[in-house]
Amino acid sequence: MVNKFAYLGSTLFHAVHVDNKVNTRLAKADSGRVLPLRRPPLPQPHRRQAGLPAPRAHLHRAAARAAATAGGWARDGWAGAGGRSRARGRCRGGGDTAGCGHLQPAPADWQYSQRELDAVEVFFSRTARDNHLGCMFVRCAPAGRYTLLFSHGNAVDLGQMCSFYIGLGSRINCNVFSYDYSGYGVSTGKPSEKNLYADIDAAWQALRTRYGVSPENIILYGQSIGTVPTVDLASRYECAAVILHSPLMSGLRVAFPDTRKTYCFDAFPSIDKISKVTSPVLVIHGTEDEVIDFSHGLAMYERCPRAVEPLWVEGAGHNDIELYAQYLERLKQFISHELPNS
């Protein structure tokens, strides 16, 4: 039996989304100036060199800080090895669990402004596969129409992405809802393909029921591995739009570029699902992507029935598209002028 996650270990799942340029991800925005984004500094014992995968144990510790950093809260019981939660099993019933794990005040490693703190809410939801899903809602644009349902890349968690969400949402006038996949950050369970799909289903339901956001106001945004659950959900539900940032055709095609068809053991076969997506789709990809080749983005674009003008970022790799001015420009154009009733 092929372990679908393991065979991508040397390629897709060693892609480092967070590098030493993270503080300038939204560089050259608006005026062309570098607009640095604040983020919590990593503890010195766990500081990593650029280009190396972040240790899994550190990701769990960083996610334990996420609640404190983002919303002034930390989950009780985060003293175990590797930061794994001891609060599992304390939630009862399905759906959203705002008090799951006995959320208690704790000092934050990084101090955000009070306005930023007030804009962020963290809570737990439960998936159909009985995992507790860490969720984050960032109210960047209270008067904005759209909310991004953001499925992040592999080597990050909510704690590391929070400042990026605040900066991105405020610049494109969208609120941002995100979540940690099963086995990532504060979410329980183990990473698997089935869990990925159950995770985004739970996030979709939480966004709709907890915040009352209707599908016509939800933009699904997937980055790298996050494009997998994004395409799956978009193939089953209609929404305002879909944004695929550095998408992959399938896992086997990443590991073995000469693969021309989908086999029964292939993981993440997004290329076979994209034709079922009925919402407008914006594909973004760097021409020099060293992790997921540019050909993946091109193939996804060509198979998509409602694809809009794509953004091919000349010279960009897998982790630095946000550094290019056209990234924000294209997002603003798409959301503000190309969507129905925008």
Describe this structure as you would to a colleague:
The chain is α/β, with parallel strands linked by helices and 342 residues long. The protein has a domain at 119-338: Rossmann fold (3-Layer(aba) Sandwich), CATH 3.40.50.1820. It has eight helices and eleven strands. It has helices at residues 56-71, 114-119, 158-172, 193-211, 227-234, 251-255, 294-303, 325-338, and strands at residues 73-75, 96-97, 103-105, 120-126, 132-138, 147-151, 175-179, 218-223, 241-245, 281-286, 311-313. Strand 8, helix 5 and strand 9 (241-245) form a beta-alpha-beta unit. The protein starts with 55 loop residues before the first helix and ends with a helix. Keywords: Cell membrane, Cell projection, Endosome, Hydrolase, Lipoprotein, Membrane, Palmitate, Postsynaptic cell membrane, Synapse.
